[in-house]
Amino acid sequence: MLFENQTFETILRRMLDRIPDDIDKREGSIIYDALAPAAIELAQMYDELDIVLRLAFGETSTGEYLDKRAADFGVYRKQATPAVRKGIFTDGNDVPFNIPIGSRFRLNDMVYVAIEKITDGQFRMQAETPGSAGNQEFGNLLPIEPIEGLGTATLADVLFPGEDEESDESLRKRFLQKVREPGTSGNAADYKQWATEVAGVGAAKVTPLWNGSGTVKVTIVNTDMRPATNDLVTQVQEYIEQMRPIGATVTVVSATGKPISVSANVILASGYTLQNVQDAFAVSLDEYFKEIAFSMTYVSYAKIGTLLLNTPGVIDYNGLTVNGGTANVALQDEEVPVRGRVSISV
Q: Which InterPro entries match (predicted)?
């Protein structure tokens, strides 16, 4: 902190040093008691100045102040979006049943509304509450208002995942990218920025001239840094078509998931179970894969060993294999690592 040395004691000492020594400056004296409250206020002011400085810069700002800083450069926080799910409906005889568009159904605390027919008995159902909560549950839907002839209603596949409001970390990453890699006239930085402006996109990789002059390929992943859904690919394609320079031919694709399977033998610490260790290790793997997606060209065998050794409950390990081998696993340009089978034994 810039003003970390500006404490109450330091400020008060400077103030007292300005008072002639022939005047009583001891604690409890009139001068001391008159200056102490001012010194406290000044020390608090310096603390708040440190906060102001942190909020003024993109790398340290947070919340609404990061929003304001990013907005100066045309970068805005992505708002929460609702999940779109598949609803399956039948009559009393298990025959596909068509419900009216706009019909509302409840599953526990979430309400879904029919927005589009997919085929007989199947509809797109959009959560009324934005956010990832709409992705979580599956099961029987209850109509909020009676629908004559309806037998069963089931909430099934996630067609388009709901996204929570963009985090500070994600917004800061996009803001700094915009400032440090400015887009100009449809360069690669422009396409990366346009792709990541779409809610649900976690990162993008741009390949100029991938199929000849005037062609651009944009490869995307979702916010979990995993392969994107077809709906998300379509949304990014449509958005970039509105933004791209005239004459450019743009192809948007999802990254391909590269399954990474890990097996090892471990020595367990007292009080831990094999399931505890395997679950914690799987979480660490997911975080590592998310961190290196689109930024590394390989999955590190040594790093996975370190993650395993740092997993709570693991004293030591041996026999570690990654995709059946004991070497780094290469990633192609459009591949991102995803967790495969994790087998930990004792």
A: Baseplate_J-like_C, Baseplate_J_M, Phage_Baseplate_Assmbl_Protein
State the pairing for strand pair 139-140/104-107. Answer: unpaired
3-state helix, strand, coil in the chain (%, to 5): 35, 30, 35
Directed axis angle between helix 168-180 and helix 63-71, to 10°? 20
Three-state DSSP at 102 gives coil
| 248 and 266 co-located in one domain | no
168 found inside a domain? no
With a cut of 70, list the residues of the chain below it in pLDDT: 1
CA 161 to chain centre: 13
* Strands (E) located in 16-91: 84-90
Query: Of the candidates 216, 235, 254, which is a domain's last residue?
Result: 254
CB 270 within 8 A of CB 346: no
The first and second tokens of residue 289, run together, are: 């894969």
The dihedral over CA atoms of 227, 167, 72, 175, expressed in degrees to the nearest 10, equals -50
Phi, psi dihedrals of residue 268, rounded to the nearest 5°: -85, 145
**Integer distance in angstroms from the first to the last C-alpha of the chain?**
48
- Identify the pLDDT of residue 54: 87
Which domain does 140 fall in, by range?
Answer: 84-160
CB-based contacts of 13, cutoff 8 Å, min separation 6: none
Q: How many domains, in total, are found in the chain?
A: 4
Q: Is 170 within a domain? A: no
Burial 274-313 (b: 16+ CB within 10 A, else e): eeebbebbeebbbebbbebbbebeebbbebbbebbeebeb
pLDDT given at position 1? 61
Per-residue confidence (pLDDT) for residue 178, from 0 to 100: 86
330 and 264 together in one domain? yes
- Rounded to whole angstroms, the Cα distance separating 122 from 85 reads 10
Instruction: Measure the CA–CA gap between 346 and 343, rounded to whole angstroms.
Output: 10
**Letter string b/e over residues 196-219, b meaning 16 or more CB atoms within 10 A of that residue's CB:** bbbbbbbbbbbbeeeeeeeebbbb
Amino acid, res. 281? F
The pLDDT value given to residue 227: 94
The helix/strand/coil state of 316 is strand
Say what the pTM is. Answer: 0.68
